[in-house]
Every structure is written in structure tokens, then in C-alpha cells.
RNA sequence: UCCUCGGUAGCUCAGUCGGUAGAGCAGGUGGCUGUUAACCACCUUGUCGGCGGUUCGAAUCCGUCCCGGGGAGCCA
């Protein structure tokens, strides 16, 4: 029976027999024995093993051990007399499971660039930083479910293959068997694609179950090549019935604070690695976000501030034009220096499903901008009035027949409802301080690149 | 897709005015030591991203394509 290093280090059963299995990070030989550091992925820390020359396979196996080899070790845990670790394992048995030829094994004991590691998608989780990202990502995913389940939200598995394009959400990948000669022969009887958003389907379930969320992979065929875009990414989309924009903002804010707090309290060692080596001051930044109120301004106020700003922008600022990255960054990074919620954008630049405000010019939209990442959450109150929605769809040139089911939600028992989308990888980026989104997903897919 | 910077040993990089390539680390061998980015000595390693051009001669200059970083657009 093996014990995970995480538990060994937490419980420190000194004097007790312990067995574990993992991969060799480094070996150092001394006079009559070797120090071997083992990592088993359960935590950032390695466990130091002492392997004495009296072990039967000392000369044949243990002295040959190199970085990357896999081993099983049994022994007795003891207090360490030297600095660097509280406890260490005196091995009574060490079995080599798999060797790793040091001439060809690409990972070294020293630091590698993330660009290099990206070429080794199958080996990079064995590094400190990528292992830590994986654990924090897993924990955040768990915390997402915990947050919503604690609040009686129902998870809906919305479809990956979809026949409805969530307008304004980007280009779709087309799904087909490759055998169809014409549209009538299509596998689904109509053209289909990979989902760009589960929102419209989530609305269906919100108007039946009240509060729901969907959390799954999302696909965008955009040719965008940046440090915060992926072709395949995970998106969290809560949708709440009987909920207006104020309620939407409140739940999004509460959720973000909850998630940051959860990662900090449950992954302290990994978070300290990020704070120390990836983004200095990360923990202070996150604590600040948890403690401070999020700033909130309307789009009109944002335009006002930008027009009065003493800063030269490349792109023009004018009511009716969308805010550019430089504008969003100026507001969140320089003016407010904290997460900023911008609401009530012009209807002309937002999708048909967002609820038209009383001024008839703006919609009940909200974007949450965070320093360094930009937009992390985008949401809105949905248009629940049949006539208004129909007019907006016609204006947008949408085929009404294709969305009859969506219109039915407004025809039968319509209610005000709201929701938002959170880019999960952008959240992981924000929490870990990783500069490039390709480092926070196991196997990144981007134009021209899809390893493994 | 656009702008911009880059691609030299397994990794991180240097390479001047165009004259055929170097360091540190890693790896190998030997030594030493309760070590911990271990240490000391010696040794190995190159389609200079690809193709084409200019030139007596190209890592170096020009063209083009591929790949990567940063920024922009699109968005989450």
C-alpha cells in the first residue's frame, strides 16, 4: 500500500514504516549512500530518500538512477538532521520501475522556458510549475461546483455538438462525418457545429429549474493568436431565472471572491510558488481582490472618463464604439487598479439576446475586467419580452424559424433572467499569474498547434 | 489576420566590419563530501529554422516560407 507524499508531509509519521511511488527529480551521492528526491505529483514538495550502500541493488540500480526514472520505495520515516526538510525516508527497499535515459530525457534539473516545455506537452506536467498549475486548476474546478451546489444551482450538461450558433460568440467548427454529399444527407439532417456557448440551452433549463450552470469545453474557430485565446477552452455559464442585472453582478462578484479564496486556502504551497517565481506580489493582488469592493461604472461613464483622460489612445473613444483593449486596461489597471464591472453597453454593439434598457439605446450587459487579463466575465440580463426580442432578432438578420424554441421560452411563462460566461482558463491565469493561457490547459489547441 | 522582435550544441544564450562557431548548464568518466540548483578535474556535442539569391567567401547581407515571443483585432 503506498502513501501519497502530500499525506506523508502533512502527517509526518516519524518512526513509522512508509511506502511510496513516484519519479526521481534528482540524485546526489555521498560517501556511502545517496540522497534521492522523489516527487509523486500529489504536491509540490519532493520527499528526500536516503538509500544506503547496504541495499542489495545499490551499485547496480540506485547509483544509476537519473532524473525522470520511476521508483517504488519502502522504509521508515525519520526526522532529518539537515536543513531543507523536516523529515526524510530511510529506504529499506528501493525498486526501479522505469528508467529514463539521461542522454535523451529532455527535462533537466534546472529551469526550462515555458515555450520549450510547450513542445513537450506529454512531459511538462512533471515540472514544478506545470504540476502546480494542474493541481490549482483541478481545485478551482472543484470549487466552481462547490460554490454553485451550495447555492442550489443545478448543473446542466449542455451539448458539445450543437445546431444553434450563439450569435456574436465567434466562428464555429463544423461537424460532419465527411461522407455527406449535400445538406440533405447530413448526419443530423441539418448543419451542425461544436458549441461556442451553452448559454441558449442553459436558458432553457433556467426557465425550468430556476438556477442552473453549465461548465464544459467550448470551441472557437477564430484565427486568434494571443496569450489569452484558445481554440478549445472551458467555460462556466450560470443562468438564473427571476434575476436581473444587479443579481447577476452580485453572484459573479461573490463567485470570483469565493474561487480566489478557495485556491489560496487549499493550495498554499502551489500558490507560493507562483507568488515567488511566476508573478511577484500575486498573493497580495488576490487578497486585495477578495477584500475590496469591485468597482462599477456604466459604459457611458467609462466613455466619459476615457474622453477626459490625459492619455493618448491609439483607437478613438466615442459613445457607440466598443471599448478597445487599451481602454479597458487603462480603466482597470490605472484608474481603478482592481476588478471593474462595466455595464449598460450600446445595444448596437451587443448580441440580440441582451435585454434592452428603458432608454432604448443600451442593453443590460456586464463585463468584468481584471488587471492583466482583461475581460474574464461577460454576461447580461436576457431579453424576456417576446416582441422586443423578435424585433432585435429581425434587426440582427437572424432566421426566426431556427430559434422558435428560444422564442417559446418567452411565449410561455417568460421571466426576467440573467447569466454570464466565465473563461475558466482566464480565471486559472489570473489565479496562478501564468502569462500565457497555453500553460493553464493540459493540451492547448490554437491555430496551427494541437499537440497530443 | 495585421504590426513587431526572435530562431546558433540537449537547455539558456554570446558571436563586432561578411573570412567556415563559443560560454554556462545538461550529459559522460574519475574524485570528494549529511547532500539539497551539491562540489572539483577532464571529455563529448552543431544541416547556425528551411529554400533560393548576392559574393572569391554568408550564422552575418537580400528575398521567401515555416515556427516561437510580445502587441492588436476577435472574444471568454
Provide a descriptive summary of the structure in words.
The protein has helices at 5-11, 114-118, 128-150, 199-209, 245-266, 268-278, 282-291, 299-308, 325-336, 386-395, 404-411, 424-432; strands at residues 17-29, 33-39, 47-52, 70-79, 87-98, 154-155, 161-162, 174-175, 192-194, 211-219, 232-241, 295-298, 340-346, 362-370, 374-381, 417-423. The protein is an alpha+beta fold and 452 residues long. It has an eight-stranded mixed beta sheet. A five-stranded mixed β-barrel has the order 1-2-3-5-4. Strands 7-9-8 form a three-stranded antiparallel beta sheet, with no helix packed on it. Strand 1 (17-29) and strand 2 (33-39) form a beta hairpin. Helix 3 packs across helix 5. The two termini are 32 Å apart. It binds one RNA strand of 76 nucleotides through strand 1, strand 2, helix 2, strand 11 and strand 15.
Return residue spans where pLDDT drops below 50 for at least 5 consecutive residues: none
Q: Would you tell me the overall average pLDDT?
A: 93
- Into how many domains do the coordinates divide? 2
Looking at this structure, what is the CATH superfamily of the largest domain? Bira Bifunctional Protein, Domain 2
Amino acid at each position: 500500500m503506498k502513501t501519497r507524499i502530500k499525506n506523508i508531509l502533512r502527517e509526518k509519521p516519524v518512526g513509522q514504516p512508509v511506502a511510496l511511488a513516484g519519479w526521481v527529480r534528482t540524485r546526489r551521492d555521498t560517501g556511502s549512500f545517496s540522497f534521492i528526491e522523489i516527487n509523486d505529483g500529489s504536491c509540490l514538495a519532493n520527499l528526500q530518500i536516503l538509500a544506503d550502500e547496504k541495499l542489495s541493488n545499490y551499485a547496480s540500480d540506485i547509483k544509476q538512477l537519473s532524473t525522470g526514472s520511476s521508483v517504488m520505495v519502502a522504509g521508515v520515516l525519520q526526522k532529518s538532521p539537515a536543513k531543507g526538510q523536516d523529515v526524510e525516508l530511510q529506504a529499506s527497499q528501493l525498486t526501479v520501475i522505469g528508467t529514463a535515459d539521461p542522454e535523451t530525457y529532455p527535462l533537466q534539473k534546472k529551469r526550462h522556458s515555458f515555450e520549450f516545455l510547450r513542445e513537450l506537452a506529454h512531459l511538462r506536467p512533471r515540472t514544478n510549475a506545470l504540476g502546480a498549475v494542474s493541481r490549482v486548476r483541478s481545485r478551482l474546478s472543484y470549487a466552481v461546483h462547490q460554490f454553485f451546489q451550495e447555492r442550489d444551482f443545478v448543473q446542466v450538461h449542455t451539448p458539445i455538438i450543437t445546431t444553434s450558433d450563439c450569435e456574436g460568440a465567434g466562428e464555429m467548427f463544423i461537424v460532419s462525418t465527411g461522407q455527406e454529399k449535400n445538406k440533405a444527407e447530413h448526419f443530423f439532417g441539418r448543419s451542425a457545429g461544436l458549441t461556442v456557448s451553452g448559454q441558449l440551452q442553459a436558458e432553457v433549463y433556467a426557465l425550468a429549474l430556476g438556477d442552473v450552470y453549465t461548465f464544459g469545453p467550448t470551441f472557437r474557430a477564430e484565427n486568434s493568436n494571443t496569450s489569452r485565446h484558445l481554440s478549445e477552452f472551458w467555460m462556466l455559464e450560470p443562468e438564473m431565472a427571476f434575476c436581473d442585472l444587479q443579481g447577476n453582478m452580485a453572484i459573479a462578484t461573490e463567485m470570483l471572491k469565493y474561487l480566489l479564496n478557495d485556491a489560496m486556502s487549499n493550495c498554499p504551497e502551489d500558490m507560493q510558488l507562483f507568488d515567488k517565481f511566476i508573478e511577484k506580489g500575486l498573493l497580495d493582488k488576490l487578497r486585495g481582490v477578495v477584500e475590496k469592493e469591485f468597482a462599477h461604472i456604466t459604459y457611458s461613464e467609462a466613455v466619459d472618463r476615457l474622453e477626459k483622460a490625459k492619455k493618448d489612445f491609439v483607437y478613438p473613444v466615442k459613445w457607440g464604439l466598443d471599448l478597445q483593449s487599451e481602454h479597458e486596461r487603462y480603466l482597470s489597471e490605472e484608474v481603478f487598479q482592481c476588478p471593474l464591472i462595466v455595464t449598460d453597453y450600446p445595444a448596437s454593439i451587443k448580441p440580440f439576446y441582451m435585454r434592452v434598457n428603458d432608454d432604448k439605446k443600451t442593453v443590460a450587459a456586464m463585463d468584468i475586467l481584471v488587471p492583466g487579463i482583461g475581460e474574464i466575465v461577460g454576461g447580461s440580463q436576457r431579453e424576456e419580452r417576446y416582441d422586443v426580442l423578435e424585433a432585435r432578432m429581425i434587426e440582427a438578420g437572424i432566421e426566426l424559424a431556427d430559434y422558435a424554441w428560444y422564442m417559446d421560452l418567452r411565449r410561455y411563462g417568460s421571466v426576467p433572467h440573467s447569466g454570464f460566461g466565465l473563461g475558466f482558463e482566464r480565471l486559472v491565469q489570473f489565479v496562478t499569474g501564468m502569462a500565457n493561457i497555453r500553460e493553464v490547459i493540459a493540451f492547448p489547441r490554437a491555430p496551427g498547434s494541437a499537440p497530443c
